[in-house]
Write a structure and sequence with these properties.
The chain has about 110 residues and is mainly α. Helices cover about 65% and strands about 5% of the residues.
């Protein structure tokens, strides 16, 4: 019997797990709007946005930092903007897709 040697991956995607968590929260956000649970979505989006931005800095992919800086400001729970309506509802899944794309593309070479 021959055993196949598996080559280890040369890259790791540190931002993938936080991006998945943020995307899950943002895909649920339209259902939670107007509810007390939406505050949790704001906290998750802001905190995980900072984490993903930090992983982008570590990966030297600086172009993600302004994207997530804007998202952190818009979804900040401390001084929330009074956004409502269909544009704000549509912004939630759009932000989720941005998180998923960033999580898939932000990668660092393994040492």
């Amino acid at each position: 019997m021959t055993t196949k040697q598996r080559n280890p991956s040369t890259y790791q995607r540190n931002a993938f797990a936080p991006s998945l968590l943020a995307a899950a929260a943002l895909f649920l956000a339209p259902v939670l709007m107007g509810n007390d649970w939406f505050l949790a979505v704001l906290f998750l989006t802001s905190i995980l946005g900072v984490i993903v931005a930090w992983f982008a800095v570590q990966a030297r992919q600086w172009w993600w930092v302004p994207v997530f800086a804007v998202m952190v400001v818009i979804w900040n729970p401390v001084f929330p903007f009074p956004f409502t309506g269909p544009v704000w509802t549509a912004a939630q899944p759009v932000a989720a897709v941005v998180f998923l794309v960033a999580g898939a593309l932000i990668k660092v070479r393994r040492p």
